[in-house]
Amino acid sequence: MTRALLALGLVFLWAPVALMAAFAFSDARQPFVWGGFSWRWFAALAGNPRMLEAAMLSLGIAAGAATLAVLAGGALGWVLARHGAFRGRTLFGALAAAPLVLPEVVTGLSLLLLFVALERATGWPDGRGVLTILLAHASLGAAYVAIIVQARLSGLGRLLEDAAADLGATPAAVFRTVTLPLLLPSLAAGWGLAFMLSLDDVVLASFTGGPGATTLPVLLFSQMRVGPTPEANALALILLLISALVGAVALLLRR
Amino acid sequence: MSLRIEALHKSFGATPALRDLSLELPARSFVAILGGSGSGKSTLLRIIAGFETADAGRIMLDGQDIAPLPPRLRPCAMMFQSYALFPHLSVHENIAYGLRRAGTYQAARVRELLELVGLAGLDSRRPAQLSGGQQQRVALARALARKPPLLLLDEPLAALDAGLRAATGAELRRLQRETGTTFLMVTHDQQEALGLADLVAILHGGRVAQLGPPQQVYARPATRFVAEFLGAANIIGNHALRPENIRLGITGTVPAHVLRAGFRGETWLLECRTADGTALRVALPAGAPPPPEGSAVMLSWDVAAMVPLGA
Amino acid sequence: MIRAGAVAWLALLVAAPLLLVLVIAFAVPDEGLPPFRLPWASEAPNESWALLTADAFFLSALARSVLLAAVTALLCVGLSYPMALGILRAQPRLRAWLLGLCVLPFAIGFVLRMGAWIGLLRDSGLVNRLLIELGLASEAWQMLYAWPALLAGMLHSYLPFALLPLYAALAARDPALEEAAADLGASPFTAFCTVTLPASAAAAGAAFLLVFIPAVGEFVVPELLGPPEALLAGRAIWQEFFQSRDWPLAAAASVALLGVLLAPIILWQRLERR
Lengths: 255, 311, 274
Description:
The complex is a heterotrimer of chains A (255), B (311) and C (274).
Chain A: H1 2-23, H2 40-46, H3 49-82, H4 89-101, H5 104-122, H6 130-156, H7 159-166, H8 171-199, H9 203-208, H10 216-226, H11 230-253
Chain B: E1 3-12, E2 15-25, E3 30-34, H1 41-49, E4 56-61, E5 64-65, E6 76-79, H2 91-102, H3 107-116, H4 132-144, E7 150-154, H5 162-179, E8 182-187, H6 190-196, E9 199-204, E10 207-212, H7 214-219, H8 224-229, E11 234-236, E12 239-241, E13 247-249, E14 254-263, E15 267-274, E16 279-285, E17 296-300, E18 307-308
Parallel strand pairs in B: 3-8, 3-9, 6-7, 7-8
Antiparallel strand pairs in B: 1-2, 1-4, 4-5, 9-10, 11-12, 12-18, 13-17, 14-15, 14-17, 15-16
Chain C: H1 2-24, E1 28-29, E2 36-37, H2 48-54, H3 56-88, H4 92-103, H5 110-121, H6 126-133, H7 147-171, H8 175-183, H9 188-199, H10 201-216, H11 220-225, H12 233-242, H13 247-273
Antiparallel strand pairs in C: 1-2
């Protein structure tokens, strides 16, 4: 029974995605129509400057946002796990987790209002664009990193750090030689998650982006409003293959 | 090196864990702190190591109060109950850890330690690739690396199989003699404490109930708690009487009958009831069969075997 | 120092923006950039709240959103249970791969996934062409821009939010509990209902809320797959902001949305902390 439902769920999840990937090789101009085998949509994708530009922009924003999210989220998780009870701890925890549950439109609107207010008060940021999208994505990603880091630190406890201190390590040495190496897999996972969240976001980028900064998901969203394209199918297949490769390598490395 | 603990006090919230605890350890000795759960024994060890701060009291190590020092500046080393080996470092690097922090790392010293604990050649293993007994030895070598004058051992044998415990205990004893380090071991296991230590301190309710050599604390328990905690004891009035000090025979002074006989391996432990209703436990060598349940027996003991108890 | 930095981060990027939404919900629309006057700088009164509550337009959008999110979350949790149990009953070395197989479709991004549903379900889409070719339909069914398509897209978008936490909770449970139930004479189904389900109720509740809360404000999926006449809260906020350029109204609608979500969010944080 559970097996049958698992299979059903997998079919539901995979059917549209697999069909998309399969029709990436169709020569037909209409997506999801078989017109014989062809590589042409991959070539078309490679020769589409708008798409490539948006992709590069998205990758850059995602990498920057993920890095910033790891730094900020690491600090948030550290405080949540290691600072015990302090005044405002409940509010701190609620704010740290808020981006996880706030509706995207509300987060997007709120960050836009922040950037507008900041610009009026200080002159910075000068308009909206790459930087504001990056900050918005980092704010979202940091909440996820914080959860991962907090869970890992709570799971580790203080035992190993106590042992290191007992062996003569200064607090800085304890962090460098014990805490950080043990935290590294979690930070890497958090970076990956923040990277994916950024690459998948339409709403925050729409609110906090400007005319000069169209990310790939925003571009695709405006295209999908009109209808799917064979180029999008080709892109989906490429993304699927890259992710499958990364996922398989990660799974095999875990052994 | 000598350790003197003076009037140590520690409470967690309203619950006192240690109450004005004082204790003095002679240099180069193997001391066991014995107590049940909640006796404060782990708290005491963590305060000496510096992971907890006492509310009051002093910890004098060779005349210097180490209580204000952070753990890394205290000359003692700790062996943790769960070993606390660094999972991301090799065996070699685990043992080298303290040496590297002190800037005195030499590969030869690490190999010497590995040899000392009988793990030569396992340098590059990760802790997860070791058996429980091997992990215990790595933890020991790591704690001994910087030749601390005082080694704190938190339940060092608790995580081992019963079969490994006796051999590892003897090994601890040998290392203590060879290195001349003072060992302060915390345990809840009476056999372990009595079998390994030069001195046993029984902790009860955050205080030292009795401190003395194993034979003495067993034979002359100072309080009812100590008498009952260290093996079976009959409490008669405010005297303790060990079951093995009661003789059973046809002649004797106290008539009784046997309620039950329990097999203990080396001995039978008989539960008897005397004519006036007092329950007495009597140990018999296991060689012969015990008297049948319900049979009448005569009991006797030397008055000198009755140990007067304090509060 | 770390704490000061963390507090500053939250104050700037979480607390301040939310406070601004609250303030601007009471501002007055104005020509210019930004297109509003702050409540204390304007003589004209704020009308956003009156506009929101004047007719059933926004309130019914909010109700519709809550209903859609609840059904989505229920379907996600309902499907996640058997899927997670199915994975856990596989051989241990297969589990990670099965879980990977469940998560991989999400790697292509949800815009493209929604694009795939459009390609399948629209009038000239694959399903309609297949139905006509097989003689099961004489003309195209209108499947896209309707509730079933929207629900399929929502389920496809939100399933991992329920699947992953439920899988983690069920993986951490004590298998001896079910064995004990079986030993005491319970059938597998009874064991599930009387032991597994109650033991994982908190995790299921958290998973439900983790889908429900963001789904109430969902914008992209309804925009691409849903019936155009069915206005939802997320779309209402988006339209007020981007099309009508009434920022105070968009902010007021956001506050109303948050008001509806406040209880579920607090409940979720309680469940997570356990």
